[in-house]
Amino acid sequence: MSTHYPALIIVVPLLTAVIVAAVGWINKKYCFPLSVASLAASLLSSIGLLFEVMKTNGEVVYRFAGWEAPMGIVYNIDYLNSLVLIVVTAVALINLIFSKGSIENDFPDKEGVFYALYILFTTGLVGMVATGDAFNLYVLLEIASLTGYALLGIGNERSPLSTLNYLFIGTIGATFYLLGVGYIYIATGTLNMAEIALIIPKLPNVGIIKFAFVICMVGLFVKMALFPMHGWLPNAYSNAPSSSIGLIAPLTTKVTVYIMVRAGITIFTPEFTFEKMHLDKWIVWLSVIGIVMGSCFALAQKNYKKMLTYIVVAEVGYMVGGFWLGNKLGITGSILHIVNDAAMTLCVFMAAGIFSYKIGDHISDFKGLFKKMPFTMTAFAVGGLSIIGVPPTCGFFSKWYLVSGGIEAVKATGSIGALAFIVALLFSSLVNAVLFFRIFEVAHFEPFSEGHGHEGHSAVEINEAPLGMLIPFFIVAFSLIFLGIFSGDIVSNIINQFIPVLPAGI
Amino acid sequence: METVYSIKPFLAVLISLCVVPIIISSRTENIREGWTFAAAIIKFLIIASMLPIILSGGNLEFTIAQIMPAVSIKFKVDAFGLLFALVSSFLWIITSIYSIGYMRSLNEHSQTRYFAFFALSLCAAVGVAFSANFFTMYLFYEMLSFATYPLVTHHQDKESRTSGRKYLFYILGSSIAFLIPAMLITFSYSGTMEFASQGFMQNVPPELLLILLFMFVFGFAKCGIMPLHSWLPAAMVAPTPVSALLHAVAVVKVGVFCVIRVITNVFGTDLLAKYGYNDYICYIAAFTIITASLIALSQDGLKRRLAFSTIGQLSYIILGVALLSKNAVMASMLHIAMHAFGKITLFFCAGAIYASTKIKNISDMVGIGRRMPITMGCFFIGSLSVIGLPPTGGIISKWYLVLGTLEADKIFLLVVLLVSSLLNAAYFLPVVYKAFFCTEEETMFEKGVKEPPIWCVVPLVITAGISLIMFFYPQPFLQLADLAVNSLGVK
């Protein structure tokens, strides 16, 4: 059983997706438990896999159908992807339980299809994280993207258009990646990540690899919405239904960042990525601009969901910049932020789900909420404080590593870009403080007003969210503190085990 | 020096955190306040029970969690930390009594929230006092910022909204902009955060050292040093017990406490003396002392005048530690206690006047001493203590501070202290004079105006009494400060 964990993570949800879609026609009552069961199975296998990796202290290699590497598809599970796998499956599971009510509300009669898409999307992400094959990754990227478009496009009346926009840009991004993989295949003759890494240093002509590298990275930057390629994200996300956005917003960008880390370290090797490419300084600057602009745009929003989407854009800058600092602390911060930001983003988007269910999305409508729904607001406050980066929530610790990485880079090379990165991080923390305290102020100071009817929501009574929403919400809020207190353990036992010895002088 | 591993410091911090859910879920007001009292008294007793070990030269330690290999959440009780914890936990008991009188006689709303966040603030303040490393101190420092926000904005009106915004902007802004990077740069160079008796900054290049010093001092904006002081007068919008305990004792003293910790246990007095960087801090503090006193002269609102007086007095403490001489550092530690009792008395009086008469401005207080003799008598004692005149505790810390300036051979700063004392007298004594010395016709108050409820009067009599007692019997604070200075090895 345990030897098949890597397969179970993917196969169970993949098959369940088909079954759920079919069951949806017969009796939709069974859709939800089936979906929960399959994602729980995935989550458990991910946890099992992490222990397996820790036990063997290295890699778990799984060959699908027993085929060896150049021919068959191999899943390589090491410390990095077992960690990200847990994040992906846990977020998907918790958000599914959280959204049960709103799924029934928003998509009556279509529940089966929605659950199928939801699980298929998760399968795509999980596969992207688990695979050790560059082309297989593209296939799973497309699975996740296509189901993602569907999940985003069923929101309000403006969502089809914004999703179409996303579809165009996202397809371009994915194509870039595929093109890059094509070049790599031409140069090395293999698609297996580990083998590519072995062949690249031996190649006489690295020009083609450099080209492939640039194209792959551009494709990934588009998919992860790094500024200035972020244009599709805010509208696509803010028009989407809250049940799917709680899945997509925390995970899509994070998984793409994971692929960037994987490509930079495993496929192309750190020597190549940080020394031969001479791109690191430019990308750090790009992320600096992304962080600052994302924060400024967020400041200009009056709609809560829209504000969050720009925070997501800024957070992508955190992770990209941290990685391209090219030192151990920076990369640690970047990977830790994949975990922490997924939890944080989930928390604030869950709040968005409750708010849009009860009140609406406009910040000015959040009057008197501390009185009306104190528990919801407490959990929301934890999420906000984590995004600001207040200890002991997890947001503080990823910022800790990112800033330390910046300091390390400044000390080592005197790089101005790294200094700017530190300043941008602090600036963004300040802006986040303004953003969330603006909401806290409205909710704390302004008296609750009756007659807030928005789009037929007036029938809903403003009080605490139902327990089915509140319990998952609290679990997530609590996990922010939990991740914060145990961040040292996560770093030293998992993340540091993954980061290879980096070449000196970077 | 023996180090005892004990859970006591953790319990002392935890008790006021644990009482929060009980306060929130209490059914009646009396039960709620009963729990506040119980927590306050237990907290004080736990802290006081650590006194014998500390006085015999020992320390207490307790580690809660190892966050990162070199970073932990850890408590360590030393003489200086205990001094501050004793003062703040004792005054929490007194303030709780006062809060009941004040909040109930004014019929304030949301009293449950008020008491809950008050307990949380005390948890943070004592957490800062007992921190063994910079990280733990920062953790509780930030916790205090957030725990006091709902208290500052208690009235939930437009004015408190603006003030709350200003409060957070200064406190949180400075800590994000200066404190976090300074902490991480320090950590990146020295690889440790544990407070040491001569600091841990030996590896930092000297030019960076100066920048870091400024980042730390301004990062702790709670210490009220100019130009980052204006949140304090704004925060006076809070109910008076909050101003009394938090903005005369807990919050602002946490600010100066952190500055003292940074100068003595992070930089180390020898290191700063070697480069002479402490002079910059001395002059900024001297500037703050004089300017704040001058501004205080022109304030008509009693609480605002007290706030500017606090800003000036806080800089006494910073000046003391920045002088780096033995007596001066001791003075600055002592002043935390002495000023606390004096200033809290003054705030209690201001609140008592407001609770009985709804008057906030000094110009409307002519003849109030005739109607409220106990309150104004205590106000007089409090003023004497803050000015630094016998027979009050204030003179003791000022005495050592003057000795310190002579020791450090800085006559200019001695002049500053003397001028400031004159200015203090100039802005406090007229209030007392006008309150008492007027004819019956000049009195602005009807015969019916009486002392506030007993719940308000008793606390201010107690704190005024302690201010007096401390002149004759400054133990154990003197002994604690002496121990603290000796353990630092200040020359």
Characteristics of this structure?
heterodimer, A: 506 residues, mainly alpha, two-stranded antiparallel sheet, 20 helices, 2 strands, 75% helix, B: 491 residues, three-stranded mixed beta sheet, 3 strands, globular
Could you explain how this protein is built, in words?
The complex is a heterodimer of chains A (about 500) and B (about 500). Chain A is an all-alpha fold and about 500 residues long. Chain A has a domain at about 280-505. Chain A has 20 helices and 2 strands. Chain A has a two-stranded antiparallel sheet. In chain A, helix 3 packs antiparallel against helix 10, helix 10 runs parallel beside helix 13 (about 305-325) and helix 14 packs antiparallel against helix 16 (about 375-390). The longest helix of chain A is centred in the last third of the chain and has 31 residues, at about 330-360. Chain B has about 500 residues and is mainly α. Chain B has one domain (about 5-490). Helix content of chain B is about 75%, strand content about 5%. Chain B has 20 helices and 3 strands. A 3-stranded mixed beta sheet of chain B has the order 1-2-3. Chain B is globular and about 70 Å long. Chain B starts with a strand and ends with a helix.
List strands and helices in order, with pairings.
The complex is a heterodimer of chains A (506) and B (491).
Chain A: H1 5-26, H2 31-56, E1 60-63, E2 74-77, H3 79-106, H4 111-130, H5 134-153, H6 159-188, H7 193-199, H8 207-224, H9 233-238, H10 242-267, H11 270-276, H12 280-299, H13 304-324, H14 328-358, H15 369-372, H16 374-388, H17 394-413, H18 416-445, H19 467-485, H20 487-498
Antiparallel strand pairs in A: 1-2
Helix pairs in contact in A: 1-2, 1-4, 2-3, 2-4, 3-4, 3-10, 3-14, 3-19, 4-5, 4-10, 5-6, 6-8, 8-10, 10-13, 10-14, 12-13, 12-18, 13-14, 13-17, 13-18, 14-16, 14-17, 14-19, 14-20, 16-18, 16-19, 17-18, 17-19
Chain B: E1 3-5, H1 8-25, H2 29-49, H3 51-55, E2 59-68, E3 71-77, H4 79-105, H5 111-130, H6 134-152, H7 158-190, H8 206-219, H9 231-234, H10 240-267, H11 269-275, H12 278-297, H13 302-323, H14 326-357, H15 368-371, H16 373-387, H17 394-407, H18 411-436, H19 454-472, H20 477-488
Parallel strand pairs in B: 1-2
Antiparallel strand pairs in B: 2-3
Helix pairs in contact in B: 1-2, 1-5, 2-4, 4-5, 4-10, 4-14, 4-19, 4-20, 5-6, 5-10, 6-7, 6-10, 7-8, 10-11, 10-13, 10-14, 12-13, 12-18, 13-14, 13-18, 14-16, 14-17, 14-19, 14-20, 16-18, 16-19
